[in-house]
Design a protein that fits this description.
The chain has 4 helices and 8 strands; from the N terminus they run E-H-E-E-H-E-E-E-H-H-E-E. It is of the alpha+beta class. The chain has 2 domains: 11-155, Hypothetical protein (Archaeosine Trna-guanine Transglycosylase, Chain: A, domain 4), CATH 2.30.130.30; 175-205, no CATH class. Strand 7 (190-191) and strand 8 (198-199) form a beta hairpin. It is elongated and about 95 Å long.
Length: 216
């Protein structure tokens, strides 16, 4: 049995018609419009549930939204697509930011939207308001969300480890290091004009003999 005492964040559900719901899931749309302010929604999480396909919304997205929507036969309905955190709750005319997606009167402004790895089937609740998921659906949504979070954490852990290893490596040799030949006395060697082998001009290193094998 788990011994974790940290309370879980509240998970609500909101029904969003397609293809609007897909736009929310892929972070193209930052807000969900509701009819009334849901109590205690700020700071909680919402499961974005795909409702029926709305031809009017699809037409608006195509003409005014700048997004080519999916056709009704190419998109899922009756499923939970994503989970998002409610960053702000606004009521017309007070809004935290401008968005062509916001029509009010109440807006749930979303952040940290995460698409579920597998769609979770659900009977969509009433539109334009928040509702509670059935217990089995809520458990499946939380499990999918936890899977994505764990994968993201593992990805960042690996990235940070790679970055740390890269920073701990000795610096790559410069062009000067690659071309400059040093004698054992740490003095720069120069090519002999006769035999082209490298020689040290330090008199303490001994004279250079052109008939000797060229050595770096």
């Amino acid at each position: 049995m788990s011994t974790c005492t940290t309370p879980r964040a509240r998970l609500l559900a909101v029904t969003v018609p397609q293809p609007y719901a897909y736009s929310v899931a892929v972070r193209a749309c930052p807000v969900v419009n509701l009819a009334e302010v849901p109590p205690g929604a700020l700071g909680s999480y919402v499961a974005v549930c795909a409702g029926e396909y709305d031809e009017g919304i699809a037409h608006w997205m195509d003409v005014h939204g700048g997004i080519r929507p999916f056709a009704s036969e190419d998109i899922h309905t009756g499923t939970v697509l994503a989970v998002a955190r409610v960053a702000a709750v606004s009521q017309w005319p007070d809004v935290p930011r401008e968005s062509r997606w916001y029509v009010g009167p109440v807006g749930l402004w979303l952040a940290d939207v995460i698409r579920l790895p597998e769609l979770v089937s659900v009977e969509p609740g009433p539109a334009a308001q928040c509702w509670e998921l059935p217990e089995d659906v809520r458990a499946a949504v939380r499990a999918g969300y936890a899977t994505v979070q764990a994968e993201d954490k593992a990805r960042w852990t690996d990235f940070n480890a790679r970055a740390a290893r890269a920073q701990s490596r000795p610096p790559a040799p410069t062009l000067k290091d690659k071309l400059l030949r040093l004698c054992n006395c740490r003095r720069a060697m120069t090519p002999c004009p006769t035999c082209k082998s490298f020689r040290c001009l330090n008199p303490d290193c001994g004279p250079h003999a052109c008939h000797q094998e060229a050595r770096p």
